[in-house]
């Protein structure tokens, strides 16, 4: 706790430059660089140390959850200051459920998932504080405290990730078969190359590839976008993970292929009886796929609930704005709605509600401290001063 408090104090000291907000003097730049270097060294040292399993063992708040994010803070230490990409994120992913995470670009969706995988770009990107509790079945690990060497044992095996752009995720100089076999050979000791090949071909068939033997011998550039995405899904599923993170898996695909990939994810979820963390901009995908929805804005969760609650009873003005900005078939409008204003600078975040400057319903209370969560129902909560505990708007 003392270490986390010290890190947050150091971050706050360098979060915003003194004087002119658009200009940094040479002295201020040196102070930021010196403070960042010191903090990064200590955080990197903590990740690389060799510790006993007991130091990162933990207890789940609810054993029915597969993952619990608890007040997660992930920062990027830049030359201009500390960018708070994830600034106190708290939500859970239940076993066997699909949780959709939505929000504008830059709101912290992908950084949250990369924090779970311990893939945040270091040394500038660091998990500063908070917990990420992962349910292994017979025990639970706090991933935020795990050394890198131990994290490699569960990354890919227990938690797998489908990245947004398969062309940049697949290695262009290795054949598809080699990249599939590598996952199996790495996480299944005792598996022979022949067994790995058979398993890889089986996974290619599972994801709907018609000629797995041919695709097995291909390089990534010889496949279409949809085929590459299916290969990425096959790699992610190779070791039967308990959790699949799908980071905008349909963004780079046309509408027809999008539908096929979503059907594939839905079928696979039933077969492996796992959980999915689905990150996307597309509210239509969320409505079709997700059981629960988490709405993020400027590095924080501003509303969460079941899919029905978020779509039929959106409470936060930002959630309402997201739904209004979605095109609707057979509805003619002169101009598509957009939320006015800009997201605040992550290096100099205000003390009050981050959405205040863009909100058309703000009140005098919005000038106070950042709003706490209001529990509207057992599954629905919102961080907004407009509502009371029952979810009813204030007069």
Describe this structure in words.
The chain is α/β, with parallel strands linked by helices. The chain contains 13 helices and 13 strands. It has helices spanning 2-14, 26-48, 109-117, 148-154, 166-169, 176-187, 193-206, 212-216, 225-237, 255-272, 283-289, 307-312, 317-324, and strands at 57-58, 65-78, 81-94, 98-102, 125-135, 140-142, 159-162, 243-247, 275-279, 292-297, 300-306, 374-375, 381-382. The strands form 2 sheets. An 8-stranded mixed sheet has the order 7-8-9-4-10-11-13-12, sandwiched between helices. A hairpin with a 2-residue loop joins β10 and β11 (300-306). The longest helix has 23 residues, at 26-48. 39% of the residues are buried. The model is unreliable at 1-7 and 11-19 (pLDDT under 50).
List the helices and strands and how they pair.
Blueprint (H helix, E strand, L loop, with lengths): L1 H13 L11 H23 L8 E2 L6 E14 L2 E14 L3 E5 L6 H9 L7 E11 L4 E3 L5 H7 L4 E4 L3 H4 L6 H12 L5 H14 L5 H5 L8 H13 L5 E5 L7 H18 L2 E5 L3 H7 L2 E6 L2 E7 H6 L4 H8 L49 E2 L5 E2 L13
Parallel strand pairs: 4-9, 4-10, 7-8, 8-9
Antiparallel strand pairs: 1-6, 2-3, 2-5, 5-6, 10-11, 11-13, 12-13
Helix pairs in contact: 1-2, 6-7, 7-9, 9-10
Individual helix count: 13
The total of beta strands comes to 13
Span from first to last CA? 41 Å
Average pLDDT rating: 87
Percent of residues in β-strands: 15-25%
Helix content: 25-40%
Structural class: alpha/beta
Query: Strand arrangement, largest sheet?
Result: 7-8-9-4-10-11-13-12
Order of helices and strands: HHEEEEHEEHEHHHHHEHEHEEHHEE
What summary fits the major beta sheet? Answer: 8 strands, mixed
Q: Write down the Rg.
A: 22 Å
User: What is the overall shape?
Assistant: globular
- Uncertain runs with pLDDT below 50, 5 residues or more? 1-7, 11-19
């Amino acid at each position: 706790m003392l270490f986390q408090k010290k890190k947050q104090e150091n971050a706050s000291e360098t979060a915003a430059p003194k004087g002119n907000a658009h200009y940094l003097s040479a002295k201020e730049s040196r102070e930021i660089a010196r403070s960042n270097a010191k903090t990064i060294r200590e955080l990197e040292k903590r990740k690389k140390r060799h510790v006993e399993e007991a130091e990162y063992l933990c207890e789940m708040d609810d054993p029915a959850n597969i993952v619990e994010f608890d007040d997660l803070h992930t920062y990027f230490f830049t030359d201009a200051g500390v960018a708070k990409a994830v600034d106190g994120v708290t939500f859970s992913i239940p076993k066997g459920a699909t949780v959709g995470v939505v929000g504008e670009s830059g709101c912290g969706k992908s950084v949250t998932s990369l924090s779970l995988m311990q893939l945040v770009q270091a040394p500038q990107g660091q998990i500063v504080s908070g917990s990420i509790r992962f349910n292994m079945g017979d025990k639970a690990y706090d991933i935020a405290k795990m050394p890198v060497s131990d994290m490699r044992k569960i990354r890919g095996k227990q938690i797998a990730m489908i990245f947004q752009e398969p062309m940049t995720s697949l290695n262009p100089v290795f054949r598809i078969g080699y990249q599939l076999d590598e996952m199996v050979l790495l996480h299944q000791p005792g598996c022979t190359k022949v067994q790995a090949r058979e398993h890889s071909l089986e996974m290619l068939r599972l994801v709907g590839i018609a000629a797995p033997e041919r695709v097995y011998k291909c390089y990534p550039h010889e496949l279409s976008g949809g085929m590459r995405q299916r290969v990425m899904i096959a790699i992610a599923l190779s070791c039967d993970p308990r959790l699949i993170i799908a980071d905008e898996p349909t963004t780079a695909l046309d509408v027809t292929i999008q539908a096929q990939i979503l059907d594939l994810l839905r079928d696979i979820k039933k077969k492996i009886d796992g959980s999915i963390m689905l990150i996307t901009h597309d509210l239509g995908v969320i409505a079709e796929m997700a059981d629960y929805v988490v709405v993020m804005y400027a590095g924080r969760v501003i509303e969460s609930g079941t899919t029905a609650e978020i779509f039929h009873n959106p409470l936060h003005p930002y959630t309402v704005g997201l739904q209004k900005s979605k095109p609707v078939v057979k509805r003619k409008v002169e101009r598509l709605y957009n939320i006015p204003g800009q997201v605040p600078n992550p290096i100099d975040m205000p003390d009050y509600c981050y959405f205040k400057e863009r909100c058309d319903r703000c009140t005098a209370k919005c000038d106070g401290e950042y709003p706490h969560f209001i529990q509207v129902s057992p599954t629905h909560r919102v961080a907004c001063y407009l509502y009371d505990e029952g979810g009813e708007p204030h007069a």
